[in-house]
Write a structure and sequence with these properties.
Helices cover 44% and strands 17% of the residues. The chain has 300 residues and is of the alpha/beta class.
């Protein structure tokens, strides 16, 4: 009897790619990766590892049904920042979940996020869109687990304009965390955790898993980069959310609200560093990650 099949959406992206490779490394599964472009270099690299690669679009439910057909499990991630359309992202998530029900999938792991507006009154569309899908899953009878990733370490190496180069060559991290440390992890470390959840399906059905590997003040993260690279990083520790929102770049208001939400008790109750370390004993602290990824900063 062949090994059960796990289908991974976003397999050429950071989250999905880590999940697909981790499932393959853990063994016991056949892995299918879903992408819109199976001829891309990233898709070819997955094929070279032994991952089946299929073409589908989350905007086309028929192609999604075909992609998940025969799957024991599915990892589903949607990308708000590609769409910049919360309603469209929510529809993608719900349609894909419906497709999983219709095709008899036994375990859907959904990359969700917590409901900022419902819990705090703060509008954060890229969180709230995924939270709406989370709320939908229990209503359709799909055996599911929702995995909530935290802030990525990778974002401190240039993502979303959160590090700004100064005239003296140093870098300023413009993250307005005025009152709390920041939960974070490497996106690459999420894959082994998801693979472990698939392995222990019965333990995690119906649960929300809040991943996080480190919980430190942003100034600590800046100090670790400075310690282990030739670059100097500092935290703009007096920066407020209001000042961040006034930067005026696209989605500045939304990201400011995200950091406001990150400082609420509602958000803090949703993260579990100990569980993350149980799921992935090799999960990296930020310091260890910086030491292993110096080139990301040296090239900035």
């Amino acid at each position: 009897m062949s090994n059960p099949l796990i289908t991974v959406f976003g397999a050429t992206g950071e989250q999905g790619g880590s999940v697909a490779r981790s499932l393959l490394q853990k063994g016991g599964w056949r892995v299918r990766g879903v992408t819109r472009n199976p001829d891309s270099d990233k898709a070819k690299a997955l094929k070279a590892l032994g991952i089946e690669v299929v073409k589908a679009s989350l905007d086309d439910k028929a192609s999604v049904k075909e992609a998940v057909r025969g799957s024991h499990g599915v990892f589903l991630v949607t990308n708000f920042w590609e769409l910049l359309d919360a309603a469209r992202e929510t529809k993608q998530g719900k349609d894909a979940a419906d497709a999983c029900v219709e095709e008899g999938v036994k375990h859907l792991i959904y990359s969700g996020l917590s409901p900022a507006k419902k819990l705090s009154g703060l509008s954060v569309p890229h969180l709230d869109a995924k939270a709406e899908v989370e709320d939908y899953l229990p209503t359709i009878g799909i055996p599911y687990t929702s995995v909530r990733y935290p802030f990525y370490y990778e974002n401190l190496a240039g993502g979303f304009g959160l590090t700004q180069k100064q005239e003296d060559g140093s870098f300023l991290i413009v993250i307005p965390m005025e009152t709390h440390p920041l939960y974070a992890m490497s996106v690459a470390d999420g894959g082994p955790a998801v693979a472990e959840i698939f392995k222990n399906r019965d333990e995690y059905i119906g649960k929300l898993v809040g991943l996080a590997a480190d919980y430190k003040p942003v100034g600590h993260y800046a100090a670790m980069i400075t310690k282990h690279t030739t670059k100097t990083f500092k935290h703009a520790d007096k920066l407020t959310s209001e000042e961040f929102a006034a930067f005026g770049f696209p989605a500045a208001d939304e990201i400011a609200n995200m950091f406001r939400y990150f400082q609420t008790d509602h958000f803090h109750r949703l993260k579990d560093v100990a569980l993350t370390k149980k799921l992935n004993p090799c999960v990296q602290s930020f310091e260890d990650w910086v030491k292993a990824n110096k080139e990301r900063f040296e090239s900035m």
